[in-house]
From TrEMBL:
Species this chain originates from: Maritalea porphyrae
Known function: NDH-1 shuttles electrons from NADH, via FMN and iron-sulfur (Fe-S) centers, to quinones in the respiratory chain. The immediate electron acceptor for the enzyme in this species is believed to be ubiquinone. Couples the redox reaction to proton translocation (for every two electrons transferred, four hydrogen ions are translocated across the cytoplasmic membrane), and thus conserves the redox energy in a proton gradient.
Protein's name according to its UniProt entry: NADH-quinone oxidoreductase subunit N
TM region positions: 12-33, 40-60, 80-101, 108-125, 131-150, 162-185, 205-230, 242-263, 275-294, 301-322, 328-349, 370-393, 405-426, 447-470
Coiled coil segments of this chain: none
Lineage: Bacteria, Pseudomonadati, Pseudomonadota, Alphaproteobacteria, Hyphomicrobiales
Amino acid sequence: MSSDLTSFVALAPAYPELLLAIGAIILLMMGVFSNEKTGNTMIVGVAIGLLAVTAVLVAIHPAEGVLFNGAFIQDGFARFMKVLVLTGSAFALVLSVSTASDHNLNKFEYPVLVILASLGMLMMISANDLISLYIGLELQSLSLYVIAAFKRDSGRATEAGLKYFVLGALSSGMLLYGASMVYGFTGQTQLDEIAKVISLGEPSLGLIVGLVFLLAGLAFKISAVPFHMWTPDVYEGVPTPVTAFFASAPKVAAMALFIRVVFDTFEPIAKDWQQIVIFVSIASMVLAAFAAIGQKKLKRLIAYSSIGHVGFALVGLSAGSQTGVEGVSIYMAIYLTMTIGLFACILALRTDQGYVEDISDLAGIAQTRPFIASGIAIIMFSLIGLPPLAGFFAKWEVFLAAVEAQLFVLAVIGVLASAISAFYYLRVVRTMFFDEPNHQFIKTPNELNVVIALTAALIVTYGLTVGGFLKDVAGIAAGSLF
């Protein structure tokens, strides 16, 4: 009995993952045996509560360490990123509460899949081995493939799910090939052991090839150029609450995994992976800045915006320093807040014919829906990076890291890309405030109003309220990798 208790206590760093796994099984059984009309709503509520409780457990539970023969690691960086992921997943489910029936998401399988995807994300963040990395990645990906095609009677959603699945399978193959090359030339699968082998001598050409393929597979997951091609089509095709989920939590988890791989595994050959990250960062910022200009669909615009913001986040990672990791951590937290707030605003704009799709559908909402128009304007200005909004501080942190690493050209390109992006963000604001209204909107659900107010308040008051706290916590998280 005492040995069983000792074993259970030894699993303390993995309690959040165990809680989500057990919770997903219980929710699945509840869905199977409950009444369809009342059960689905209850399961969504329980799922949100489960994610919230898990986030609190991660935040306040100090247990850290390495488990499962080195395959799983819990440290300050993992805890920080896990709180962001769980928060993003919980808010994505909140956004779907009142809009689920409109998007055919009012089935108990949807929140269960979100929970399973979140479990995969937590495993990705704590992966300390190439095998556990792949298992976490595929658990997340398989859940997301099903969620993308969840609206089965929609041709667009089915097409989006198929595109995501095919391209996702391709990226998984690239990642596995890279992992096999790394294993073949080092004889190790554990990330820290790989780093020790690499540090013993000059890296071989085969190892560099493995690094390139491994990072290519991860770049797909964060929608970085040139592996971004799925993002606009999937964002546009899937239901808006699903897009909100795709644009938030999975991006944070994939970025966390990207950071852990390059710093824990390939730190001895930092100059090699920095070249790749710098190229991907510049390509993402520049392509997104120009490609978004011609977009007329709102969700496609957001897709290219997310690609650009991944590029900005990678500016900090390119520095290869603790300051850079701290900057990326802060950036992802602020990006998550802006994304959730923006999608809450979009879902709040519903007409008798459906939800807004084109940018022109926002015409004149400053007159008919001033609260929502103000929320969108605040978020758009923050996405540009205008002070004193949160987006300014996010870009300041990553550009500062690049300047400290003497990557002056990269920082300048980032600033210029931000200036270009102002064109399409301000076009949305102009449409809302200066065009004549052309739609009558239905009353906004209360939970969406709360999310809009909360995110807008955080963005506006960031420097005076949570900014200092977030920087301190991000600094501790980044320090755990060094």
